Amino acid sequence: MAPAWREYGEVGVLAHDSTGVIQLAYDPGISPKGGGLPGLAVLKNVVDSINLFGIIAVVGALAVSLGVWAWGHHTGGHQAEANGKKGAVVAAGAALGLGAANGIVAFFSALGSQVH
User: Fold this and answer.
1) Blockwise average pLDDT, block size 10, the chain, 116 residues
2) DSSP-derived pairing of the beta strands 15-16 and 22-23
3) Which of 42, 51, 68, 77 could bond to 84 as cystine, CB 3.0-4.6 Å?
């Protein structure tokens, strides 16, 4: 019986096996492993610091945007008011993304590990 797929170097060839399942590629059997490289703790610390810096910057951007929104509203500057609203929405979205980044990556990583 012929194999479900034939491997040529690193590339899997599309073929049908006896059950009708289509094999699209070779499974290298690689999975994430903590502690495999030196400096992982330092990298995590750097990413945490970047996330904190981003959240602090978003707080400043939100404060400025809300100030522009209020100033535009009280002076009748419709363009400034609209830009302040846009800035507030963008800052809120950025805060949501920064705060949820770890959870989003964990969710999709768990989802991806279920693919066979």
Assistant:
1) 47 56 66 80 92 96 97 95 97 96 91 82
2) antiparallel
3) 68
